[in-house]
Design goal:
Oligomer: single chain
Structural class: alpha/beta
Shape: globular
Number of strands: 17
Amino acid sequence: MQREWRNTPKYFSSLQRKSIVVPELCKRGVGRSSHRPLQYLVSYELSISSSRQMDFFNHFYGTFKEKSSSMFAPGYENLEERLTPITMASALRRVYVVGVGMTKFTKPGTGPDYPEMAHEAVQKALKDARISYNQVEQACIGYVYGDSTCGQRALYGSGLTGIPIYNVNNNCATGSSALHLAKQLISGHQADCILALGFEKMEKGSLGVSFPNKTNPLDKHVQAMGDVTGFSKAPFAPQMFGNAGKEHMEKYGTKLEHFGKIALKNHNHGSKNLNSQFQKVRTLEEILTAQVVSAPLTKLMCCPTSDGAAAAIIVSEEFVKSHNLENSAVEILGMEMVTDLESTFGEKSIMKVVGYDMSKTAADRVFKKSGRSIKDVNVVELHDCFSANELITYEALGLCDEGKAGEFIDNGDNTYGGKYVVNPSGGLISKGHPLGATGLAQCAELCWQLRGEAGERQVPGAKLALQHNLGLGGAAVVGLYQLGFPTVAGRIPLSSSASGNRAFHTSTTKMSESEVKTEKTVEIDAFKCAPIFKYLGDVLNEEGKRLVEKINCVYEFKVGGPEGKNGNWIVDVKNGNGSVQFGGTETTPDVILSIGDSDLFDLMTGKLNAQKAFFQGKLKIKGNLSLAMKLQEFTSRIAKSTSSKL
């Protein structure tokens, strides 16, 4: 046996040196002291080739299969079970976003400095995740304009815990690059909880050059544009994206109005977002007749420079489950970063110089690896630094066929009621564009949408969300999100301002009596759901004492009835032996549920799923979520029996 082990390193040494994760086994050193197979696992790294890896594992496993019980310490005899996680496919872990937060984006120079902005975003994300900063193991921090360790300084206000901090700069894709790095670290078993943070404190006006005495990283992009279109006096960024828009117009017949309609949509979406820099509803005429920055782009088709910060808490599945965060966890199904390709500079296309092929390649990889399709997507946050870029990105992501973006816009397929809702936050054009924060603000918006917390901006039935963040120089990041645990998802958001929501009430305290009064009432027998409440009353008569001890809550059901009139029931499972009262307003409820008459009947009889009703907007909850969940537990028993009694 010793001879077998002495020969093993020769086998290892024939393999190329590439890293591989060996969870628990190497970390704990579980081999007995007299035998050192695990040292070879640590010392000799394996080839990236899966076939060569499997050759090695067959050799390794075959050597020990018969003698594993004698060679391994107690508790590690099952070698096959311990080796399974080492394969390339199973080595990567699922990754989740459990908390997000952002500041309001503002005009440069009008808000606090970056440490204060960063602190606000981080604290909101931690509160949203219901964890403390001490639980964060690493941080990935993105910013473009700042000295080399601004990331560390940004976190001093949150805590000095000695964690690794990575400072990230990838131009306008900086925020999503920090997010991508955090995802990679979680997926690769390097940590269980990572903070991704992005911020920017910008100067007024168009972007400029910070280091004129060094080679400009965009010199090849500038040269490629000059070779095709020449130069104008307009600022570089709008000039380049404007020329990309011109190329699309010449190639496919796109009209100026199409760029205007994109800007119109984003300004109007942003008017419902309290975190947006601009919250003004615009008209198409205003947009088209605004000052021309670089044809065909007018000022209102361009994003502003901004100050702001955004953050996300990225965790492993193990962290989600051990901290009971399933009801807020959003899974990152896939995320890809692509940098400049040969086609960026080699095909005399300004659309490709500004990132068309990077975006397309990243999206194709995400959908291929996740097994999903663009047709499955409901909501999109994409990089509309200029309306021309949003237009060409429709085609790059596959939202419409190549050359069909104009038709896609004219059909209204990029907004509520169409095929997709693109930039419900208002996008960069309305919300603003603090470079380091943008990608993480996109992540925040998509999490709010999937969790049903976007209020007036809520996309009905949002189940799959797509993110696109682009930076010249260049990098494109595309991510795909869905609820991680949809059967347990659904909660009251911690604050309406956190999600930039203008209308969604999220108080976790009791409601005042003035809030529960019904404006229009109707006779009880007119409601389809009336027998449900009669049955609830019968149940309380029989088991009221036990249920009051178990649930301890007063519920009000606001039911939308016939002819637009409403009715309300107070279900008291808190006082005495419980009671049910129609039209009662004397008792202050802990939880208010608003739902239509037929939907309530279907919900209580098991025909309508509560989570589905919540995310479709059929069921609205106001008050303490944990108590609301107790009602679901209470009514599950009733739903089984009511169908036979009604």
